[in-house]
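Researcher: Batch entry, complex prediction.
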Amino acid sequence: MTEPSSDRHGTSPPWPPSDPAIQKVFEGMLEDGSWGRYHGPHCAHLRQKLADLHQSEFVTLCSSGTSAVELALRAAGVSDGDEVIMAAYDYKANFANVVLLGATPVLTDVKQGFPVPDPQQIREALTDRTRAIICSHLHGCFAPVSEIRELAAQHDVPVVEDVCQSPGAIHDGVLAGTAGDISVFSFGGSKLLTAGRGGAVVTRSETFHQRIRLYTQRGNDAYPLSEMQAAVLCPQLDQLKRCHETRRERVRQIVEGLGDCKEFSPVLNHAEEDLPAFYKLAFLLDHDSREEFCSRCQRAGAAVFEGFPGLHLIHAKRRFRALGDLPHATALHNNLVMLHHPVLLQDAHVIQPLVTAIKLAAERI
Ligand SMILES: *Cc1c(COP(=O)(O)O)cnc(C)c1O
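Model: Structure tokens for the complex:
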């Protein structure tokens, strides 16, 4: 699935923002010619940074978050006839990746009111055919990866942790991307770390890493990330913590500002000491005209969009196995809206007009 381009986010500040550190990188690449080479220092540098941050020895850079998910599933050995468990509210391409490998997605319900998998549901969905579990941190919420990994380990099933929306987030003192067996990152054009395109797979397992190497290294790299992409990502990793702090502060202001807006409740599941990352800020909208609400927001300058579709509602039933009726995922399919992140790095004074625009849009429906 292609991420929305900037015109879909017409009301958002430009992304990526202009940044002197990136300008310096480009100037350096022009001088030393590294922008046009197959091999150079930048990919190695980025790999090292990702490895250090996640205290994981094995990092594969690749062409997108979507290919990272594919590689992670291949590393887990997913193939014809297997089952892969995932939440029914998840990124669409994750479902497609499972199908691509000849496996069946097993869709489980989310925790009520949150875009994250429910461990109890996953426990029930496990069978002899389960080959992997995909666990995605979505819209600033934390998926209970440690809990799910614990129960998966009893069945010797690896957990693929999808960190595409939340690099650098910390839950229960655990950095996102270090709780699962294999974690996947995206550097797509709208993401918090961006090179326009790109992705990474991070793991502590040499076996998984070797499988990925075997698949991608064909005398040439079949899923490459370029030196140019790696070069612009390095300074962004250095700035990530500081950017996350600003975004969290803006989210606090928005949530406080919306306070008593009864049609509209924020979807957050972090504890006080957690450090969530906001690629999207999700809300549940308590009335039927979501489309109209979103276009009113957009016309008023707030980049608010409908959330993901429920995977059980957009795919033919023969494509997947569902655990029950998935009512909570259906509720998110119908009622979730999300604010796109670029505004969260803006100065504090943009928040009040944003809150007013959202409140007005909710009232006028
Ligand atoms: C964006 C995203 C992906 C895919 O990343 P691309 O680089 O766009 O292929 C996968 N999972 C989640 C949760 C995402 O948000």
